[in-house]
Design goal:
With 181 residues, the protein is α+β, with helices and mostly antiparallel strands. The protein has one domain: Glutaredoxin (3-Layer(aba) Sandwich). It is 29% helix and 27% strand. It contains four helices and eleven strands; from the N terminus they run E-E-E-E-E-H-E-H-E-H-E-E-E-E-H. The strands form four sheets. Strands 7-6-5-10-11 form a five-stranded mixed beta sheet. It has a two-stranded antiparallel sheet with strand order 1-2. Strand 6, helix 2 and strand 7 form a beta-alpha-beta unit. The longest helix is centred in the last third of the chain and has 19 residues. The chain is globular, with a radius of gyration of 15 Å.
């Protein structure tokens, strides 16, 4: 739920404003924990996403053109980013996510469903309570769960800045490699 001390945040869908639940996160913030489910209905939290560099690609529904394109784009990029795990998070049921991936040959990213509790949307500020969908957003996390890149797409039907998210992920991978050497 929206904290009463924070100003009301909104997104638009076809130009119509909708309130968002949760905080507005920023690069440098610690990534909040959450609970979602994977395609086998197993609960996944922040810890279970791993300790490496991760991209959380958040979208309203796979069955819409921009969400379809966004998911395909990150699946294609995943092949080039062997040191980055990419997760697509939506309110779609796990069965629908699995069906969609099977129909389109998407297999390099991990699909996570926030349908059960809306936990991710509430913790990351992407939940549109009136529609019970996620607003489009991208989060890049480093191995210490610090947010390296945050983008809330103002109009739900617009594409995110893929290049900025990918550049942030690549920079986090490089910095991690340097710190280990």
């Amino acid at each position: 739920m929206t904290n009463s001390t924070q100003p009301s945040r909104t997104t638009t869908l076809k130009g119509n404003p909708f309130s968002l639940a949760g905080p507005q996160l920023r690069a440098g913030d610690q990534a909040p924990d959450f609970t979602v489910v994977d395609s086998t209905l197993q609960q996944i939290d922040l810890k279970k996403t791993g300790r490496g560099v991760r991209i959380f690609s958040v979208l309203p529904s796979l069955d819409t053109p921009v969400c379809d394109a966004q998911t395909h784009r990150f699946d294609t990029e995943a092949e080039k980013l062997s040191d980055v795990r990419i997760f697509t998070i939506s309110m779609d049921l796990p069965f629908a996510q699995k069906r969609w991936c099977g129909n389109y040959g998407v297999n390099r990213i991990t699909m996570l469903s926030d349908h059960r509790t809306g936990s991710f949307g509430e913790k990351y500020g992407t939940l549109i309570p009136d529609l019970r969908i996620e607003s489009r957003a991208i989060f890049v996390l480093d191995p210490d769960n610090k947010l390296r890149h945050v983008e809330y797409v103002k109009e739900v039907g617009d594409h995110p800045n893929y290049e900025a998210a990918l550049a942030a992920a690549k920079a986090a991978v490089e910095e991690t490699a340097i710190s280990k050497s």
